[in-house]
Amino acid sequence: MHIEPSAGADLPLVTVVTPSYNQGRFIAATIESVLSQDYPNVEYVIVDGASTDDTAEVVARYAGRLTFVSEPDRGQSDAINKGFRRARGEYVAWLNSDDIFLPGAISAAVAALRTNREAGAVYGEGFQIDEAGNVISRFAVTQRFNLWKLLNVSDYILQQTVFFRRSVFDDVGWLDENLHYGMDWDILMRIGLRYPLVYVPHDMGAIREYPAAKSFAGGAKRARELAQIMRRHTHKRFPPGMFVYGMPTYAGAVNARIAAVMRGPLAPLGARLQRRVTHYGNRIVGEIVRRAQGWYSDGWAAPQADFTFRPGAGRHLAIDVMLPPWAPFERQRLTFSVAGRTFASESFARGEFRIPVMLPRETWDRPVTVRVRAQRYFRPGGNGEEPRDRRKLSYVLRAFDYEDDGA
After folding, report:
1. Does residue 166 contact residue 90 with C-beta atoms inside 8 Å?
2. What is the 3-state secondary structure (H, E, C) of the chain?
3. What are the boundaries of each domain within the chain?
4. Which of 9, 21, 36, 113 has the greatest CB tally within 10 Å of its CB?
5. Taking residues 14-31, what's their average pLDDT?
6. Are 144 and 199 in contact (CB under 8 A)?
7. Are 99 and 20 in contact (CB under 8 A)?
């Protein structure tokens, strides 16, 4: 959805903040992607950490169209917070100095925020690009908002597409300046635990991938910080996402050791071992992402599935389920529990149903994770042409949310 520039003065102000340090070779593309947007009411602030390259000279070409602040800071989170604190916009976003917005991003975000008045933030689709700005691939993991997965498994939200309602920071606080790699994931978790995050089906941003980029150069230090963030919000010692982000890091360390040891005549064998390590590491990560919650991308649910809900949006949940006419059992029974305590049990036959469930009173004013257990399951197998499906499947889940939200 786009907003015509002629709407102009009646549209809410959007503040875009770009934290920057020694990114002179990329920052012109970042600036152009902001200033070329079709949305007419934008405040653009670049908060630079006293760069020693040509950043100031590049930015000077856009004098009068943006605000440039250059002074020492305590890192990226500090720079973003500086920009957000001085922002005059009703909506805010940050765009790193090596990333870009895509055409129509701001218009699409504003339209979504105005339509979804309760949303704390909105996000969309995007791409990964290389140093030259060429598209490497689509950012493939984007999905509709799922709070349990955001907290426990992965940051499937592309930060370069996120636009926030400025007022939410008065509630949840600013970015954590002690975080170096996962400050974007942490703030999305904190907002998601109090407000809806709304997915926008529009290409909105791109992240630049290259060896020196922080996300790719963090190694074990990054993996440890992300594990710390997940533990803080889930209170789990070993959340699934710890392995999602840790496995590639440590598989890379193993491969580096193989390369160091297996040299000369052993190099071909070492290369095969490295491919094997990478293959199995990726396979394990894929299985964790696919199975951790118990709700699969094709809509089927496992015999046990977990869902997290923010507080204050209602007392009743509604679960939309379907049991196909060809299912190997005629009825299914679901049991709902919180922290091991069962609070509801419902059964349904073949067909499609909406089942209302009242949450326990003690959960009404706090985030709550509900575990849904199904009484029956089957394994679909294979047809000889496709790989065997070894999943345990219980029912098709269309939606599970607060009834007041129109789930």
Report:
1. yes
2. CCCCHHHHHHCCCEEEEEEECCCHHHHHHHHHHHHCCCCCCEEEEEEECCCCCCHHHHHHCCCCCCEEEECCCCCHHHHHHHHHHHCCCCEEEECCCCCEECCCHHHHHHHHHHHCCCCCEEEEEEEEECCCCCEEEECCCCCCCCHHHHHHCCCCCCHHHCEEECCHHHHHCCCCCCCCCCHHHHHHHHHHCCCCEEEEEEEEEEEECCCCCHHHHCHHHHHHHHHHHHHHHHCCCCCHHHHHHHHHHHHHHHHHHHHHHCCHHHHHHHHHHHHHHHHHHHHHHHHHHHHCCCECCCCEECCEEEEEECCCCCCEEEEEEEECCCCCCCEEEEEEEECCEEEEEEEEECEEEEEEEECCHHHCCCCEEEEEEECCCECCECCCCCCCECCCECEEEEEEEEHHHCC
3. 5-213, 238-291, 300-405
4. 113
5. 97
6. yes
7. no
Q: Are 141 and 161 in contact (CB under 8 A)?
A: no
Question: What residues contact residue 16 under an 8 Å CB cut-off, 6+ apart?
Answer: 34, 42, 43, 44, 45, 92, 93, 94, 95, 101, 106
- 357: amino acid identity, one letter: V
Give exposure, 82-104, as e/b (b: 16+ Cβ within 10 Å).
Answer: bbbeebebbbbbbbbbbbbbbeb
pTM here is 0.91
User: Would the pLDDT of 356 be above 60?
Assistant: yes
Homologous superfamily of the 5-213 domain (CATH): Spore Coat Polysaccharide Biosynthesis Protein SpsA; Chain A (3.90.550.10)
Give the pLDDT confidence of 99-156 residue by residue, as tens digits.
999 999 999 999 999 999 999 999 999 999 999 999 999 999 999 999 999 999 999 9
